[in-house]
Amino acid sequence: MKPIQRIPLQQIDLSDQTFSVNFMPDVERLRSSVKAVGFIQPVLLREKPHGYQIVSGFRRISVAQEQGYDEIEARIFGEQEMEDLKLFLISLQENLTTRGLNAIEKAIAIEKLIDHFKIDPLVVTREFLPLFDLETNEKISNTFLSLARVEEEVKRYVLKEKVSRTNIRRLVALNVEDRKAVLALLTSLKLGENSLREVLTLLEEITKRNRWAARKVVDLPEMEAILTHPDLTPSQKTERVKKALMNLRYPRMSQLEEQFEKTKKELKLPSPLSLHHPLFFEGKGLRIGIQFTTLEEYRSALSFLSSLVEKQEFQELLQEK
Asked: Which residues make Cβ contacts (< 8 Å) with residue 170, sequence separation at least 6?
């Protein structure tokens, strides 16, 4: 490696991404640091016949351009000094020790090791996954490899929402058209990790049972009506979408729930009383709850309870059970 030099930015090939694993890099701290004290570490470049190739320092060079620098300090590798794989490993190590890699950047690194540098996937799993704080598990390696190959908007969603590996596997298992349709659905909702898992699981089960494409489920009129409703918040849309998916997944249970609610409404229960069916309508019997704050409410509830036995609607509920 040659001594540190100042290299004009116009001589650096910014289009060559051979050694880059950057994805949605957070450069705000770097930008603030550069404004305060300039660049602390030189970038790493390799000589090429008509300029320089970036080995490490893509973010620094980007910020240098943004802030009007004409040149930047760099350590230079000769064109034939070191093979590509070694330079890529140097770039990885520098990034891992200075800033770390986000989930998508880890996926890109794994893909490059396997697809570009032709390293055996088992070797990558065994020797490289620990560098990324990942367990040496082939399933994990395959998950990140698949993630690297999906559309950019899916990667952005996974990174922004911090999607778990389990849910990543569900997303990448979809074909391109289904994945785009499902992503449009997901980005319209307010989903935590559990809700995301619930939605993806229901979609998977519906498509398998009905032999539908996932996009067909998303494009159903009832789903579109929820997503385009102008007065619903993302949280409200989420609950309604989950309910719609449950109805599609368990149509018989949906019918039972609808009939139960209709009959319960006809009973005109006073506010201290609540009536419940077994979870998922599995099992027998009904459960009545009572909540009161005064003796009068208690007496009223007891009086109503004693009259329930004479109500035809209540008898029908018991017969159905």
From this structure: 197, 200, 201, 204
Beta carbons within 10 angstroms of residue 250's beta carbon: 17
* Reported confidence tier of residue 254, pLDDT bands at 50, 70, 90: low
pLDDT at 80: 87
Confidence of residue 270 (pLDDT cuts 50, 70, 90): confident
pLDDT at 22 over 90: yes
Mean pLDDT (the chain, rounded): 90
Distance CA 178, CA 167 (A): 15
Tokens representing residue 23 in the block? 């994805």
Q: Which pLDDT score, from 0 to 100, does residue 321 have?
A: 53
pLDDT score, position 276: 84
Residue with tokens 């001589």: 11
Question: How many residues are present in the chain?
Answer: 321
Answer yes or no: are the C-beta atoms of 200 and 154 closer than 8 Å: no
Residues 6+ apart with CB under 8 A from 78: 2, 46, 47
Region 191-213 average pLDDT = 93
Chain center to CA of 98: 26
Q: How far is CA 44 from CA 14, 91, 255, 258, in A?
A: 13, 8, 66, 66
Token pair belonging to 137: 């598990």
Query: Where do runs of H (alpha helix) occur along the chain?
Result: 28-37, 58-66, 84-98, 103-111, 121-123, 138-148, 152-161, 165-172, 176-187, 193-210, 214-218, 221-227, 234-249, 251-267, 295-308, 312-320
Beta carbons of 245 and 189 less than 8 angstroms apart: no
